[in-house]
Structures are given as C-alpha cells and as structure tokens.
Design brief:
Blueprint (H helix, E strand, L loop, with lengths): L5 H7 E9 L3 E8 L4 E7 L8 H31 L1
Antiparallel strand pairs: 1-2, 2-3
C-alpha cells in the first residue's frame, strides 16, 4: 500500500467522541480499533459566533489530519522494514 485514502482512515476508527470546554473549544477524540486515541480540537474567538456543528467538523478534520500523519508514518515504516 503506497496510498492512503479517507476510507482507509475511516476503517481504523472504532469510536468518535466530542467534548466542549468553556464557551468556544471543541475536542474530538477518535478511538481507533487498536485502542489508540487521536485528538483534534477547534476554537472560536467570539463565543457569540460559536457554532457547535462547525466546531465538531473542524475538530474532527484536525483529528483526521493527525491520524493521516500517524498512519502515513506507520505505512512508510512498514514498507522500509520489508525492503
């Protein structure tokens, strides 16, 4: 495997959880099937403009970006060990 897709990453996720801290911070925790947890967060400057759905989406996207980097490293390392 030399290409990672969004579907590959989605297949790794066992559970998706969200928490809101204060008036403007949203955290997304993606628990993977391996038991490892990847975190993404979002923040809004003005509490009056806070939108929970937007906060969740940004936090999720940030968690996926973190997962992308971790899984990419894992795949690359696996390929190198096979050479």
């Amino acid at each position: 495997m030399t290409k990672i897709t969004q579907e590959d990453l989605q297949a790794l996720i066992d559970k998706e959880e969200y928490a809101r801290f204060g008036e403007t911070c949203t955290v997304c925790a993606l628990t993977l099937k391996s038991g490892y947890t990847v975190i993404g967060k979002s923040g809004c400057i003005d509490p009056k403009q806070f939108d929970e759905n937007i906060g969740r989406k940004i936090a999720f996207d940030n968690a996926i970006n973190e997962l992308w980097a971790l899984h990419g490293y894992h795949i690359k390392n696996t390929l190198l060990q096979g050479e």
